[in-house]
Amino acid sequence: MTPDFTDTHCHFDFPPFSGQELESLALAERAGVRRIIVPTVTADRFARVVKLARDYPPLFAALGLHPLYIAQHQEAELEQLAGFLASRPQKLVAVGEIGLDLYMENPQFERQQRVLKAQLKLAKEHDLPVILHSRRSHDQLAAMLRRSEVPRRGVVHGFAGSLSQAQAFIRLGYYIGVGGTISYERAQKTRSVMAQLPLTSLLLETDAPDMPLAGYQGQPNRPERAAEVFQELCRLRPESAEDIAAQLQHNTHALFTL
């Protein structure tokens, strides 16, 4: 089987990839990672990510305002996002990275919810799926998604919640992002969740340069390591590697229509 993976979540607009795009893409290609979705975190990165997707065939863009940067997100940034989405840039596949975060210091949670609600509305208007960030906020996020009804649904990326929380998102029609957390023996809860969820609900990701895999602590994570996340997932699941790879790709294309 020729490997054919998509890293559905990689911040390729950050170091160590910025300025090293061709070398980084060649390493990914060698590992079988042939497509990479690049979500933004702040409005000042929209143009850069759109240009990356235009300039490099393996890259696809997602535009959104990340909750960790809530202090930067004003009405003007939401208007910028609306303008970019209305222009429908080439290879735009999602609104993201958006979501909720109760782990950060001073979360300004009411404001986070207002910004997320506005972005879910934009996703609905422009018929795009969403890439969702959620830390210590799964129940609150699920409640908002129930009320906001995004027709194209989306993915809860880098998921590390409980099985029942994952199942709640899946019942709402959302996918669950599998990342490098499963490479850690101590992450028994997340490993168990990913072993039990339906394969039809999983997507492969790295969150590079964040979330390094076991054995790479202290180093920037990289998109080619999606292949190692896949290998770890195969060790946890009963299905064959071929079936897992085929279903992950099917899920990716069904959500993002790459």
Automatic annotation (TrEMBL):
Q: Which residues cross the membrane?
A: none
Matching entries from SUPFAM superfamilies are given as: Metallo-dependent hydrolases
List cellular component terms (GO).
cytosol
Q: Which domain of life is it from?
A: Bacteria
Q: Name one GO molecular function term.
A: metal ion binding
What Pfam families does UniProt report for this protein, alphabetically? TatD_DNase
Which positions are annotated as binding a divalent metal cation 2? 133, 157
Keyword set includes Kinase? no
> InterPro entries from the xrefs?
Metal_Hydrolase, TatD-like
Keywords (A to Z) from UniProt: Hydrolase, Metal-binding
Q: Which residues bind a divalent metal cation 1?
A: 9, 11, 97, 207
Q: Which family does this protein fall into?
A: Belongs to the metallo-dependent hydrolases superfamily. TatD-type hydrolase family.
Q: What name is this protein filed under?
A: Metal-dependent hydrolase
Instruction: List the top taxonomic levels of the source.
Output: Bacteria, Pseudomonadati, Pseudomonadota, Gammaproteobacteria, Enterobacterales
